[in-house]
Design brief:
alpha/beta; TIM Barrel; eleven-stranded parallel beta sheet; 15 helices; globular; binds iron/sulfur cluster; Aldolase_TIM; metal ion binding
């Protein structure tokens, strides 16, 4: 157990380097005035290091078919109550063009994990087509693309990177979910074809970087059995792997998952812990992109507004066709399943402007950390 730091909070927040004790203390803040001081500092550091824009990633959930069985996940393979779908190439390209015309700048392509050759080749074709159809005057390299398609081999990552045709707007999100090996093993303990091993996840993240991606990772916050020290080590792990972006959110149970009986934290303290985690990560890694997860909105109306106020600078509105959104429930009551794609930009503009930020339209919005390390 780490002894938490006792220095004045104002002194701690003015630092640019943080000890493990400092991080644990910031994560555990509960006093409203102290939480507000942390939030304000994180917001100011975000402004100073990444600017005033909040960037858009139009999220397209292209398929909920998955070969894995992560115990926390509502669309895991063994949940037979989910209606499975894969969008057509045409409808995905239509979503991408919608995003382009609305000024999104980037899209995120998410699906369950598949590693069969047919799937790999289909994704490659899709990426080639999206690139070809979205190069334009505003975006000379086409839409930025973030892939979230699970653990693959280096060769597959490389193939998709080349197919995307856009080395400056290419990202991959692969969350580690927890850097605590015991917790990771508990989350992924269901035996199966694509068994999950933490070291494999780290290798995949190294492979992504080698293949030229801006690399994103993240964890779940408030997992059963997780401690503040675990979350502190998660932040240290983000730093050690040199993550360019972070996507993380509160752990919310799902009826279709295998660990629902373990319960979840109460909503209010869970929200505060998630916000403290965002702000503390921002202080420790000032120039990365941090996404305001949809799970924040599921936990509390305007959750993403709070996320932006606490240090997030990316939002990922769901632009998946309405008909399939309800089938992509990684956790219960996921927010955004009712909002039509046509209303997204107005909704998002309102959300962003409530925070004093501006919506970064027609911009790739790449991570400054990535730009600095590749300059
Ligand atoms: S978290 Fe991802 S890989 Fe795991 S079961 Fe869910 S969709 Fe599949």
């Amino acid at each position: 157990m780490t002894a938490t730091s006792t220095k004045p909070l104002s002194e701690l927040l003015a630092q640019t380097e943080f000890s493990d004790d400092d991080i644990v203390r910031l994560l555990g803040l509960t006093d409203p005035e102290e939480c507000e001081a942390l939030r304000q500092r994180a917001f100011d550091v975000t402004t100073e290091k990444t600017g005033n824009n909040v960037y858009l990633r139009g999220l397209i959930e292209v398929s909920n078919i998955c070969t894995a069985n992560c115990r926390y996940c509502g669309i895991r393979k063994d949940n037979h109550t989910v209606e499975r779908y894969t969008l057509t190439e045409e409808s995905i390209v239509a979503c991408a063009l919608h995003a382009l015309h609305e000024g999104y700048g980037s899209i995120a392509i998410q699906a369950g994990e598949r590693r069969d050759p047919k799937w790999i080749a289909w994704i490659s074709r899709l990426l080639e087509r999206i690139h070809k159809e979205t190069v334009c005057e505003e975006l000379p390299t086409g839409l930025g693309v973030t892939l979230s398609l699970g653990e693959q081999t280096y060769e597959v990552y490389k193939e998709w990177a080349e197919a995307s045709g856009n080395p400056t707007g290419l990202r991959y999100l692969l969350r580690i979910e927890s850097s605590n090996p015991r917790l990771f093993a508990e989350l992924h303990s269901t035996p199966g074809k694509h068994e999950k091993i933490l070291e494999h996840r780290y290798q995949a993240l190294r492979d992504l970087r080698r293949a030229g991606y801006q690399v994103g990772t993240g964890v779940m916050i408030g997992l059963p059995g997780q401690t503040l020290e675990d979350l502190m080590r998660d932040i240290r792990t983000f730093g050690e792997m040199g993550a360019d972006m972070i996507g993380m959110g509160p752990y919310i149970t799902s009826n279709g998952a295998d660990m629902t009986a373990l319960g979840m934290m109460e909503k209010r303290p869970l929200m505060q812990l998630a916000l403290n985690m965002i702000s503390t990560t921002r202080l420790v890694m000032p120039d990365i992109n941090i996404a305001a997860a949809t799970a924040l909105e599921t936990l509390e109306p305007n959750g993403r507004v709070r996320g932006i106020r606490h240090g997030c600078n990316v939002i990922m509105p769901n632009i998946t066709p309405q008909t399939t959104r309800a089938s992509y429930q990684l956790y219960d009551n996921k927010a955004g399943t009712e909002v039509g794609p046509e209303s997204n930009v107005l909704v998002e503009r309102n959300i962003v402007e409530m925070t004093g930020r501006t919506l970064g339209l027609n911009l790739l919005g790449s991570s400054r950390r990535w730009a600095a390390r590749t300059a």
